[in-house]
Amino acid sequence: MKFATLAASCILAFAAGPVSAAALQTWNVDPVHSTAQFTAKHFGIVPVLGTIPIRSASVKIAGDGQIPVAVSAVLDVAKLDTHNDDRDNDLRSAHFFNVAANPDMRFQSTKVEGSNPKQFTISGDLTMNGQTHPVVLNAQVLASGKSPRGKSIIAYSATAEIDRTKWGMDYGPMFVGNTVDISLNVEADGP
Q1: Structural domain includes residue 9
Q2: Residue 34: inside a domain, yes or no?
Q3: d(Cα 153, Cα 146) in Å, to the nearest integer?
Q4: How many domains in the chain?
Q5: CA geometry: angle at 106 spanning 100 and 112, to 5°?
Q6: Which domain holds residue 51?
């Protein structure tokens, strides 16, 4: 499976040196204008795309910067959607996400590296299927500005490639590839 859009399912915590709590601003991710997607290959050939709704997420920014120093996100795995009910039910089952026991996916950052808004990395812990393992997101600031209503917004994208078997999802390797691509597109609204 390849997962795309973990864009707002991220929780980042980083300080590139001491940053006072007062200097940090919390920007809330707008789940309506943000997506977390995954892509996995069926029979190792055909990419199948799915989405997982972002339940909540936030980005912490130091001063007037745009690169996050902390981000948090929770995704609602029980509502994942691949546009096929049978496949969605299988993905929610104990074969994969086991949403009866683990309805959420969480990301907590541990480090952000890079000073170029067009290319930085976010390292963190991804929790799904009851297990937590490190991942590295390749991220960028897409744009920033004001909404028509005058609200400050920043758009981010992030991608990663994971091996689903590290999270105990080793069912059906002949049907679903082990490599999953994750892709996030996130709108963060200013405080």
Answers
A1: no
A2: yes
A3: 6
A4: 1
A5: 165
A6: 21-189
Q: Is residue 183 part of a domain?
A: yes
Q: Which helix (H) or strand (E) holds 91?
A: helix 85-92
Instruction: Note whether residue 13 is domain-resident.
Output: no
Residue 18 has a CB neighbour count (10 Å cut-off) of 6
3-state helix, strand, coil in the chain (%, to 5): 10, 55, 35
**What does the pLDDT look like over 125-136, one tens digit per residue?**
999 999 999 999
CATH code, domain carrying 103: 2.40.128.110
Residues with Cβ < 8 Å from 20, sequence gap 6 or more?
none
Q: How far is CA 147 from the centre of its chain?
A: 23
Q: In angstroms, rounded to a whole number, what is the distance separating the alpha carbons of residues 38 and 47?
A: 10
Nearest Cα to Cα of residue 52 among 121, 15, 107, 112: 107
pLDDT in tens, 149-178: 899 999 999 999 999 999 999 998 888 999
